[in-house]
Amino acid sequence: MAQTELLNSGVAVGYYRWRICALLFFATAINYIDRQVLGILAPQLQAELHWSDSHYGLIVTAFQVAYAIGFLFMGKIMDNYGSRRGYAFAVLVWSIAAVVHAGARTAVGFGVARFALGLGEAGNFPAAVKVVAEWFPIKERSLATGIFLSGSSIGAIVAPLVVPVIAIRYGWEWAFVLTGLSGIVWLVFWLATYRPVNVHPKVSAAELAYIQSDPPEPTHDIPWRQLFKYKQTWAFAWAKFLSDPIFSFYFFFLPKFFNSQFGLTLDKIGVPIMIIYVMSDVGSMVGGWLSSFLIRRGWSVARSRKVTMLLAAFTVTPVYFASQTDDLQVAVALIGLALFAHQAWSANLLTLPSDMFPRHAVGSAVGIGSTVGAIGGMFGATTAGFLLESTHAYGPLFVVAGSAYLLAWIILHLLTPELKVSLADKDIIL
Fold first, then answer.
1. Domain boundary among 164, 194, 214
2. Where would I find the Major facilitator superfamily (MFS) profile domain in this sequence (predicted)?
3. Residue 195 and residue 398: Cα distance in Å, rounded?
4. Assigned domain for 107 exists
5. Containing domain of residue 348, as a range?
């Protein structure tokens, strides 16, 4: 088969890009493991180091604030210095910060380490989405995004299994050290493996042609400040603002929900949480695969992404009944389905910046939108706490969790009826 026929048929020619995707997956898993260590060890640390609940709350807030701030300049770093150096810098910062936790003995010390961790970890998604834009054609990007995004669920599963074992056998300090050093190990593989796609010695001419088979993009820069003028930027940002807090709600409040609703203690909560995150893992890949499949079937990029996201938004809605049932298995199934749909949604939402902006601006666009999403997460966690304190009921929270995606989809569609690649002088409709 001639090369042009291969490109037209969508048949993959070479597979090195999937090795790069595997590195993105492992980086995302490490990212989520590192951020969970403190939460898993919090009861022990509070007892041993005499923290109050307010001290712990401020330590968590330090991470959230830094995470929101970090997205802005980390996205710009990725675009200015390139994926190889930018990603390496982010992983190095968060890995060192993770290890530094082991030397902290006061709330202030942990707060400083947590702030540094948030700054570094903010680089993961701008870098990973940018790498996907550079290494994958449009028809494969949501699948690649879904695969690396599934690393977040794997991290959420692995951390509760590994961290307690390390802490019990070697002390809590080593839980921070060993998980932090895993990022350094990843960094060695990254620097040994990654080169820009157009000069990579292990990418064949046929695979390079396949990766670059989309219409050519302009090479001129889009100033960072100009990104705030585009509706596409705000469409992505508002969708993140409304949907990111929902994942944060599950991430931080599920153990408390299962304890208050079903009486599950720490020694019994592991299996339900694992089932839920396995379902979310599958959702990442199914959501990414579906829109890629529809594009290969001849659908437009806009229609493929939006139909997949709309299906995900509707799939979330039954989660309200998790707060109304007395059956643990039903609650786990409903919440698992909601997280399945959330990850399917996110696989496509994170792909949109690479659809709507040239590759050299993708990191910055992701950074801006993710900052807005992180701010939404901070407000969401605070609001959830006040609602629970005043109502002692999870029903209102699950109503919001079940409806936020439909509202986000409507706003996204109104701002971008057609997905367009934003350029300085024109828009290209996809």
1. 214
2. 20-420
3. 45
4. yes
5. 223-430
pLDDT at 53: 66
Report yes or no on 61 lying in a domain. Answer: yes
Residue 230's region, left for phi above 0, alpha for psi from -120 to 50, else beta, is beta
150 phi and psi angles, rounded to 5 deg: -65, -20
Q: Which amino acid is at 290?
A: L
The number of beta carbons lying within 10 Å of the beta carbon of residue 115 is: 20
- Please report where in the chains the tokens 């290494």 appear, as a residue: 135
Distance CA 38, CA 408 (A): 31
Complete DSSP assignment for 121-145: HTTHHHHHHHHHHHHS-HHHHHHHH
Chain length of the chain:
430
Whether the model pTM is above 0.90: no
Structural domain includes residue 145: no
Alpha-helical (H) ranges within 263-351 are 270-296, 301-316, 328-349
Q: Are residues 383 and 428 in the same domain?
A: yes
Cβ-based neighbours of 43, under 8 Å, separated by 6 or more:
none
Q: How many CB atoms lie within 10 A of CB 195?
A: 15
pLDDT per residue over 383-403, tens digit each? 777 777 777 788 998 999 999
| CATH code for the domain in which residue 11 is found | 1.20.1250.20
pLDDT in tens, 258-291: 878 888 775 677 788 889 989 998 999 899 899 9
Is-contact 10 139, C-beta < 8 A? yes
Q: Which residues of the chain have pLDDT under 50?
A: 1-10, 422-426, 428-430
Residues 345 and 198 in one domain: no
Q: Say how far apart CA 254 and CA 294 lie, in whole Å.
A: 34
Count CB neighbours of 194 within 10 A.
20
- Tokens 């200015």 locate to 80
Contacting residues for 70 by C-beta, under 8 A, at least 6 apart: 118, 119, 120, 121, 122, 123
Please indicate, yes or no, if residue 144 is contained in any of the structural domains: no
CA-atom Rg of the chain in angstroms: 21
What's the confidence (pLDDT) of residue 219? 56
65 and 195 share a domain? yes
Do both 200 and 317 map to the same domain?
Answer: no
Same domain, 199 and 263: no
424 and 406 housed in the same domain: yes
Last residue of a domain, one of 162, 194, 214: 214
| Residue 422 backbone phi and psi in degrees, to 5 | -80, 120
